[in-house]
Structures are given as structure tokens and as C-alpha cells.
Design a protein that fits this description.
The protein is 38% helix and 15% strand. The chain is of the alpha/beta class. The protein has a 6-stranded mixed beta sheet, sandwiched between helices. The protein binds zinc ion.
Amino acid sequence: MPSFRLAALALPAVTLAAFAACQEAPARPPREFDGARALEYAAQQVAFGPRVPNTDGHRRQAAWLDSLLRQRADTVIVQAWTHVTAKGDSLALTNLIARFRPDASRRLLFLAHWDTRPYSDGPNAKQKNVPVPGANDGASGVAVLLGVADALKRTPPTIGVDLLFVDGEDYADFGTEANDVLIGSRYYGTHQVPGPKPEYAVLFDMVGDRDLRIAPEGNSLIAAPEIMTMIWKTAKLVGHDNVFVDGQGTSLTDDHMELQKAGIRAVDVVDFDYPYWHTGEDTMDKISAASLGVVGDVAMALVRRGLDGQ
Ligand SMILES: [Zn+2]
């Protein structure tokens, strides 16, 4: 664990002295991620209302994200475009890319979708015509990325880190309207930002469930098994192997697939076992600071471990 030893060396001398007094190095890297703060970031998003393209909540969240990211990242790239759906709707969509050390040649990328679904068609949906509030499906992944941005502003990374917030993931039917979902990730994949590609990418989707249990997603295991092994190993190192469990989860069509098509080793960290998926009950009471904190800890440990020794 050389990178963890480096992290310990970076601590102030007084802390090192305290560790020396205990005659023992800390078993885990420092916890940098603030789960309670991440939960506040999720609550703020839900308070905007559904973040459905072309609605007020969507526009307000875009402005909020833009402003938050500019206060934290070295550079922010905004990709704004109009997507015309198969049904003829013109959607004003926005991807945001917050870059830390934009000139670093070795980079990793974290992404999450920030839009929410316009209707509720999950198997447990009681009312089909209501938009999904998206506390878990939308806000949770964004909240993790924002918590990572906070930690990276406090202690900048030694590698390049891009935080990608994609739009239009959840707009339509995944089976019959395949071109009108995963829109932002497809746009990112075909409109490359300056500089080298990330060495790998991790999508965080539905990571706030109070009852969080993340099994390896099937399409990630096929496309980038070595990245999955590395993430699960990292989760174990930070003491979260009770949440990042072994076995195989569901195989999902999600934003990571569009990045894979663009030649990026991209995986999906997702807990698909969520009864409120695509229902009007995907609300704040279903997610927790503890769960966001677990995922945030793993994300930060991935950054601090760096890109060697995968
Ligand atoms: Zn969804």
C-alpha cells in the first residue's frame, strides 16, 4: 500500500508524532469524505424539484452545479447542446466537467447523471404519470461527486481527476427509445475534451440507499474486470467490504456503456436492489449520509491510491 504510506507522510508533524506514540501506523487511510455534507447536497437537488430536461428544476440545478464546481475545481468545461428526441422534443442539455490538475497526463474520471426521469415506470410504481424525485436515482451520484470535489479542493490530487456530470440519462424508454437515454454520456464519448483520455472511469449511480449493498455489475465485469477488482480491493482496504460485496450483480445498460464505446475502461458502481427505483417514492428518506460516506470513502481512496498498482 505505498500510496497509503504517502498519505500518512503528508499529515502534519504533530499527527505523525501521535501515531509514533501509539507505536502503530493507522490501518486505514484518513477519512476525507463528509457523508453528512453529501446528504445535504442530495437534499438540495431534490428541493429543486424533478430535474427533467426543459423544466425549471433542471435549469436551476444546472446553474447551482456550475457555480459550486467553479468554486472547487481548477477548470470547468460546459458542454451544452440541443438533443431532438424520436418523438420530436428539443431538449436543452448540459454536461459539466470539473477538472482537477487539467494538465496532468495521467487521469481518472468519475461520473454521475444529474437529470431525473420524467415519469415513474418502475415495477413498484403506483402512479405512472409522476416524475421521479431522484433522491437516489440522480442526486446520490452527484452528491458523491460533489463531496469528492470538496475533498480535492482541500487536498489537491497528485493525478488528474475529472468529475463528469452527465445530462439526459433517464429521459425515455431504455428499450424502445435507446437514442433518448444515456444522451449526455454518449455526447461526452463523441465530443472529447482536450488532453489524454482517462485511464479508467467509474460511474456512481443509485449509491445512496440506506440499505446499501453493491455487488459487481455484470457489464463492468466484462469490459474492465481489472478495474472492478481494484475498486473492490480498495473498498476492503478502507473497511467497506461489508457494502462492496463479492458475487455478481445485475447487468445494466447505464452511462458506463457509452464511455466504453468511446474506448474508455468504464465501470458502474451501482446498487440496483432498490424497491423505489423509477417510482415517486425515490425520496430523501430512502437514502443516508452513511451510505454516501461509504461510497465517498472508496472514491477518495481510489484517487489517493493513484494510477499504479491496479
Ligand atoms: Zn433511472
